[in-house]
Structures
1.
Amino acid sequence: MSTESHKPSVHVQAYHRRDVEDFPPQPVLSCEGVDVSYGDFRAVRNIDLDFGLNEITALIGPSGCGKSTLLRSLNRMNDLIEGARVDGKVLFHQQDLYGKGVDPIEVRRRIGMVFQKPNPFPKSIYDNVAYGPRVTGMRVSSMDDLVEEALTRAALWDEVKDKLKGSALGLSGGQQQRLCIARTIAVKPDVILMDEPCSALDPIATSRIEDLMQSLRDDYTIVIVTHNMQQAARVADRTAFLTAQVDEHGQRFGALVEFGRTSQIFERPVDERTSDYISGKFG
Ligand SMILES: Nc1ncnc2c1ncn2[C@@H]1O[C@H](COP(=O)(O)OP(=O)(O)OP(=O)(O)O)[C@@H](O)[C@H]1O
C-alpha cells in the first residue's frame, strides 16, 4: 500500500454521518485473517476488518472480487453452499462464529441478511413478518404488536396496515424489499447484512431504502455490499475496498485494499488502486 494520498474522485451529498473515530471503538463483528474457499479455490484471502457498533460499513470493489462471498461468511450463510469453507476467525461480540458448538441458525438470527432480489415468501404480509419469530420459537407477548413494530421500523406500516392478510407478492419491488427488512428485524438481530439491496429497485425505491438504512443505524450494525459507489458514499460511515489480485500460481483471489472512513476513502484514498476504482478507471 502506498502512503501517498490520491485525488478525490466521487463527490456526492452524503447523509448526515456520525463523526466516527478512526477505528471502531467497539467492533461488533470482526474478521481476523479470513479466507473463504470454494473447494480448492481460495476466493477471498486474509481479510482483517472490524464492523463498528451502530455504523454502516460498505463493501465495494469490482465484480468477482469476493464482496458477497465475504458478506456471507459473516453469518455462516456460506455453510449452505456445497464446498464452501471459511478459515480464520469471524468474531461476534468476541465469540468465534465458526467455533465449536456455535449454532448457525442462532448466528443467522442475530446477524440477519437481506438479498439483492426481494424474496418474500408466498404468504401474507403478516405471515412473512411473523415467520421468523414463529419458527425460532421466540417468546412474544403479542404477535400483532411485533408485526406492527417491525413494519413500522421498516417504514412500511402505513402502506400495508389495511392489507396485512394480502399476499406479499402483490407488493411493489421496493415494498417487498422493505418487507424483507421487516422480516429480518422481527427476530431482533444485532446486525443486518445487505447484499446489493437496491440493485433491483428504481431510484425512488432505492432512496427509500437508503433513508431506511439511516434510521436503522441507531439500533443495528449494518454491512452493505454495493456496486453503486454513489450509494456507498451517501450511506456508509466506513468503506472497505476489495479488489482481485493474482497469486504466484496465476490464481485470482479477492483481497482487502483499503478500509477507512467513507469520506477518507472517497476523498483521500491512500492506495492508487482505490483511487483508480472510484474514479472509474477499472471495475
Ligand atoms: N458458489 C460458488 N462456487 C464457486 N465459486 C464461487 C461461488 N460463488 C462465488 N464464486 C467465485 O468466488 C469469486 C467471488 O465471487 P463473489 O460473487 O463473492 O464476488 P462479488 O465481488 O460479490 O461479485 P459481484 O460484484 O459480481 O456480485 C468469484 O470468482 C466467483 O466466481
2.
Amino acid sequence: MAMKYKVYIDGQVGTTGLQLRQRLEHHPNIELMLISEELRKDEAERKRLMNSADVVFLCLPDEAAKEAVFLVENPNVCIIDASTAHRTNPLWTYGFPELSPAHRQEIAKAKRIANPGCHATGFIAAAYPLVKLGILSPDYPFSAHSITGYSGGGKGMIQEYEASDRPDAFESPRQYGLNQTHKHLPEMQYVTGISAPPVFTPIVCDFYRGMETCIPLHTDLFLKKVTKAELIAYFQDFYKDSNFIKIAHEESGFLASNLLADSNGLTLYIEGNDQRMTITSVFDNLGKGASGAAVQNMNIVLGLDETESLI
Ligand SMILES: NC(=O)C1=CN([C@@H]2O[C@H](COP(=O)(O)OP(=O)(O)OC[C@H]3O[C@@H](n4cnc5c(N)ncnc54)[C@H](OP(=O)(O)O)[C@@H]3O)[C@@H](O)[C@H]2O)C=CC1
Ligand SMILES: CC(=O)N[C@@H](CCC(=O)OP(=O)(O)O)C(=O)O
C-alpha cells in the first residue's frame, strides 16, 4: 500500500483551498485532515491539526497567513503558503522548481515554501530565463500586462462578478493596479534580480479562470542579439526537462487566456518578428498560478513524482 502523508489545509473552503482539496482528495499518498465547519477559525483546533500534519497549506489572506505560521511548533511540519506574505522573505523558499536544479533542490528540503503569485508566475517564467541567459540586462525597462479571470480575486470578487445586479462595467475588461503598487511587484523583482519592478498592467475580465501575462521585447535593447527563431530555441532548451512548462506558437493569430484552464500547465508563446517580439505565458491562475503549483511543490517535498494528481 502507498505511504500516506497527513495534509491540513488552513482556509479549506476558500477559492484556493477548495481547489487544493479537489486535487488532494484523489492523491494516492495523501490523507487529508479536514476541520469541521464550526471550528475552522478556532485557533486551538487549527493548531492541533497543523502540528500533527506532515504538510500544511495556508490558503488565507496575508495577515491570517502570517499569524498561522506562529501556530506551528512541530519542526517537522512543512508549510506551503499560498499568500503573498512570505514570498520575498529570505528565510522562505520560493516555490518555482523549473527555474534551475538548485531551485528544485532547495524546495525538496525546505520546511517553509512560499507559493508564487499568479501574475508573478507568468512574468517570472519569461523574464527569469531572459536575464539568466544574458539576452536582457537586469536594467532592461521591463513592462508586462496580464489578463486574469475573476476567480483571481477570491470569494469576494467571484460574488461580485456573479451577482445578478452587477454593474455593466463588469462585462468589459477592467484594468487595475493603476498606482503601480500591485502586490506581486516585489516578488517579480526579487526572484528575477531585475533592477526595477516592471511597469505592470493587470486586467480582470468576465471569465472564471485562466491567465495570460505578456512581456513586450524591444530587440534593439537586447544584450545578446538573437533572432526570434534563436530565442525560441533558447527557451526550448531552458525548459526542456519541465513536465509543465512548454513553448508553442499560435497559428490562428489569437491567443486566449483560458487555453490552459483546469491544468497545471504553462505555455510560453514567443511571437512577433526579429524587430518586435512578445513573450506570453498562458496558464490557469488557479492551476500553475496557485493550487496546482502548491501540489507540485508538495510532491517535490515529499519525494513523490512531481506530476502526481496534476494534469
Ligand atoms: N484566487 C487566486 O487565484 C489566488 C489566490 N492566492 C492567495 O491565496 C490566499 C487565499 O486566497 P483565496 O482562496 O482567493 O481567498 P478566499 O477569500 O476565496 O478564501 C480565503 C479563506 O480563508 C478563510 N479565512 C480568513 N481568515 C481566516 C482565519 N483567521 N482562520 C481560518 N480561515 C480564515 C476565509 O474564511 P471565510 O470563508 O469565512 O471568509 C476563506 O474561506 C490569499 O492569500 C490569496 O492572495 C494565490 C494565488 C492565486
Ligand atoms: C483579479 C485579482 O484581484 N487578482 C489578484 C491576484 C491573485 C492573488 O490572490 O494574488 P496572490 O497570489 O498574491 O495571493 C490580484 O491581482 O491581486
